[in-house]
Amino acid sequence: MNQERVFQVLVGPHVSEKAAVVADSSNQYVFKVAVDATKLEVKKSVEQLFKVKVDSVQTLKVKGKVKRNKFGFSSKPTWKKAYVRLEQGQEIDFASVE
């Protein structure tokens, strides 16, 4: 995978209460990823960017909500989320990433 694709796969970390609970209990981190990204691409991107060993990756698509506005109805875009489990003893510190 080329260096340009590494930066296109990961959009950013997903911060929520559920993500914080999962990070504390089972050493998993949640990322927003590109809609066309595969599990293998997500794994390689996290390993290259954060210098950690990834144990497993689970992905899911979050369906965009339908919202009402003054023109009628519109929908928010569908996006993809990835749960990345790191190997024992590994952790990601988002503050000290190069």
From TrEMBL:
Gene it is expressed from: rplW
Role this protein plays: One of the early assembly proteins it binds 23S rRNA. One of the proteins that surrounds the polypeptide exit tunnel on the outside of the ribosome. Forms the main docking site for trigger factor binding to the ribosome.
Record keyword rRNA-binding present: yes
Keyword vocabulary terms for this entry: Ribonucleoprotein, Ribosomal protein, RNA-binding, rRNA-binding
Single biological process term from Gene Ontology: translation
Coiled coil regions, renumbered to chain: none
Quaternary data: Part of the 50S ribosomal subunit. Contacts protein L29, and trigger factor when it is bound to the ribosome.
Organism: Parahaliea aestuarii
Family to which this protein belongs: Belongs to the universal ribosomal protein uL23 family.
GO molecular-function terms, A-Z: rRNA binding; structural constituent of ribosome
Signal peptide: none
NCBIfam families per the UniProt record, alphabetical: PRK05738.1-3, PRK05738.2-4
Assigned GO CC terms: ribonucleoprotein complex; ribosome
Taxonomic lineage from the root: Bacteria, Pseudomonadati, Pseudomonadota, Gammaproteobacteria, Cellvibrionales
Domain of life per record: Bacteria
The keyword Ribonucleoprotein is assigned to this record: yes
Protein name: Large ribosomal subunit protein uL23
